[in-house]
Design goal:
heterodimer; A: alpha/beta; B: six-stranded mixed beta sheet; three-stranded antiparallel beta sheet; 13 strands
């Protein structure tokens, strides 16, 4: 996640904190409801919200509550401790009764149909997995969870996770889990693997799924992919269909910057291709996807994330 | 609690539904429908709340009068499923029917609508249903789904029966079931894989199933659902639009002066006369509305067409009975509301915008040329015939 401020207004709503509790070492759970007590926008497992903090930071957090409680959102926040102003602020300064602006929810990590699921969670990466487990339980699908953390005390939701299909790896007791061995035992051709955790763990899990050779892999990154080599960036034209403008995007600028510079209102948040806020429709041309959102960006041609993505074709027509 | 002994599915009610709805709205928020041992809601706010509240107002016991949890009847995909079962097919429908996905169909649909309007102008006095409202969806929907060949006209009575079957086992339902087996067999034959064109919406759904986004067995059911859901509803919606314009000359003039009003004309028309009049839900727990508590596990009839004429919501800038292009129709429940809101709404709007574009371009006047005849159905409303006279520019 980044420290950049959200630069546009967009759709936000004001929610009130109705509960704040410590649920593991350095992890607090926050529950929100609409200030008027109404239904909140629908969400599905894997969704996140943007939390606009009073100190100017915007952070994304996965929803880990219950869809059958339409008036509530719940998130869990790990105190990251390097003082970048997001999680520390929440731990120290956000309290029951406070009102915060929320954006979203959006889902870049949707759960897709399968006969069998393997969930892999590392630390606070358990948050999107909690509603996914509820979802596949209700569907009657078979599932297993591999959940790793430093110590049992540091692992949120542990008390709700019990059963033969759940394997807990506390590093101080067992050392690190060998993902390859665990996946080899469990993977089937119909398996989907959903993984959320630190970047290193996600890439290990991706490599393990590849080498085992069965199962399909889905992940959500906490942080952006390594930036592409910008030396090869070329300039291209964008045509903004709704505003009727044609603009040049030079090698050193982003579509987002250029569109904004021409007075077009676009909502963005992370500006690193991670959060999905600046999703824009592509009407013509071939985008060069640079985001970390889609597992398989080549499969997507009609939307793009204009904060980081560019164009493979000399012209790109956008729904702006 | 107010009690209604009338039969909302009786012919005299279906012939004059708004008189019935007006009576229902005056009775209260929630009414006991004695004949069917069910509850009924006709006012805007509680209808909308119930539609949004999928947690307590469930669709998975069927959205017709029959309780599938008692009868064991098969639910229809998406429409009659709650989360989480609802989600996968809904996501694929949303994607393949998004405005972006439909853009590729725009030019050919505008051409088709233009051709129909030109033919109607040649004749002058036509039945707007037979000449415009029906042939447009029949021409464009099966083709877009990749269901080619001939015989598509049978989709109209095919879907008419489907919508009747959400109501009780009455004469209307029995009469429309005659010939349904043959029509269903035609549909099944069209859905054989080799007839789904790769480029159509049917092909997109098939491709999504190949990518594992929905069960391949469900892909056929999804195309079948679109063939049924996208025909009569749109015919009646376009019929409402044409009837509204022909019977409100000042609104037609306003539209000719300012073609940008076309963007609200269709939604205002289906607010004014909603194609889907009613669907049921089943309560999952007791629900308190005003001073009435609806118990758990009962069917509740939601009157969409009544909610869209509730003066508590629709009194500006004119009374709800008026078709008024100065009104902002946002929030109408003609497409439903919430997670089950019509996933084909962009398809319907594209058809309407094709028709309106051709009308505004080529037609100078549109006037009534006789009395309209209602189409009688247990759940969809609209007209079987709308005689109009049109003259060209």
């Amino acid at each position: 996640m980044t420290d950049r401020r959200s630069t546009a207004g967009g759709q936000r709503r004001l929610l009130e904190v109705t509960d704040k509790s410590t649920i593991a070492t350095n992890v607090v759970s926050l529950t929100f409801r609409d200030v008027d007590g109404g239904r909140l926008p629908e969400w599905t497992p894997g969704s996140h919200i943007d939390l606009h903090l009073p100190n100017g930071a915007t952070r994304q957090y996965s929803l880990c509550g219950n869809r059958w409680k339409p008036g509530e959102y719940r998130i869990a926040v790990l105190k990251e401790g390097h003082g970048r102003g997001g999680s520390d602020f929440i731990h120290q300064h956000v309290n029951v009764g406070d009102r915060l602006a929320i954006g979203g929810p959006r889902n870049n990590f949707a759960i897709l149909p399968a006969q069998h699921y393997i969930f892999i969670a590392g630390g606070i990466g358990i948050t999107p997995i909690i509603p996914m487990i509820d979802h596949v339980r209700r569907l009657g699908a078979r599932w297993e969870l591999l959940y790793g953390g430093r110590t049992r005390e540091s692992m949120a939701f542990l008390n709700t996770l019990q059963g033969d299909n759940i394997t807990i790896f506390a590093k101080n007791e067992h050392g690190r889990m060998c993902l390859r061995r665990e996946l080899e035992k469990r993977s089937q051709d119909s398996t989907r693997v959903y993984c959320c955790g630190p970047a290193e763990m996600v890439s290990d899990a991706a490599a393990a799924v590849r080498s085992v050779g069965r199962a399909r892999f889905h992940s959500e990154h906490f942080s952006a992919k390594s930036p592409p080599n910008r030396l090869n960036d070329r300039e291209f034209d964008i045509h903004l269909a709704r505003s009727g403008k044609t603009l040049l995007v030079t090698a050193g600028s982003s579509i987002l910057d250029v569109a904004r510079g021409a007075g077009v209102v676009v909502l963005s948040s992370c500006e690193t291709g991670t959060c999905g806020t600046c999703e824009t429709g592509v009407l013509a041309g071939v985008p060069d996807h640079r985001d970390s959102i889609h597992d398989d960006p080549d499969a997507v041609s009609d939307i793009m994330y204009i904060c980081v993505s560019r164009s493979q074709s000399p012209h790109l027509t956008l729904d702006l | 609690m107010p009690i209604c002994d009338d039969d909302p599915f009786a012919t005299d009610v279906l012939l004059d539904p708004h008189a019935f709805y007006s009576k229902v709205r005056e009775m209260g928020d929630v009414i006991w429908l004695s004949r069917y041992r069910a509850y009924m809601i006709g006012r805007y706010a509680p209808v909308r709340n119930a539609l949004e509240d999928w947690q307590r107002f469930s669709s998975s016991a069927g959205v017709g009068i029959e309780d599938f949890e008692t009868t064991g009847h098969d639910r229809s995909l998406t429409l009659e499923e709650d989360p989480p079962f609802h989600d996968a097919s809904r996501a694929v429908f949303s994607h393949v029917l998004s405005p972006r996905s439909l853009q590729k169909l725009r030019d050919s649909w505008f051409d088709t609508a233009d051709g129909l309007v030109q033919s109607a102008l040649h004749i002058g006095t036509v039945d707007a249903v037979a000449a415009l409202a029906q042939p447009l969806p029949v021409a464009v929907i099966p083709q877009a789904l990749g269901v080619g060949g001939s015989g598509q006209e049978c989709l109209i009575p095919y879907a008419d029966y489907m919508f009747n079957s959400f109501g009780p086992e009455n004469d209307l339902r029995r009469a429309s079931s005659v010939g349904q087996e043959d029509r269903a067999a035609w549909v099944t034959a069209q859905l054989e894989l080799n007839k789904l064109a790769e480029s159509g919406i049917g092909g997109d759904i098939w491709a999504a199933s190949q990518r594992g986004l929905v069960d391949p067995d469900d892909a056929h059911l999804m195309v079948r659902a679109l063939l049924a859901a996208g025909m009569d509803t749109t015919v009646h919606g376009l019929g409402s639009l044409l009837y509204a314009l022909a019977s409100h000359p000042r609104q037609w003039e306003a539209l000719r002066r300012d073609p940008a009003l076309a963007s609200v004309a269709f939604d205002e028309a289906i607010r004014w006369e909603s194609p889907v009049h009613r669907f049921f839900r089943k309560t999952r727990e007791p629900v308190r509305i005003g001073d009435v508590t609806i118990p758990a596990n009962v069917k509740v009839l939601l009157l969409f067409a009544s909610a869209n004429r509730d003066a508590r919501r629709w009194s500006e800038p004119s009374e709800p009975e008026a078709f008024d292009l100065a009104r902002n129709p946002a929030g109408h429940v003609a497409f439903g509301m919430g997670i089950h809101q019509c996933v084909g709404q962009h398809v319907a709007r594209l058809e309407a915008s094709a028709l309106l574009h051709a009308m505004v371009t080529r037609v100078r006047s549109i006037e009534m040329a006789g009395d309209v005849t209602r189409n009688l159905n247990n759940s969809v409303g609209g007209w079987a015939s709308i005689p109009i006279q049109i003259t060209g520019c």
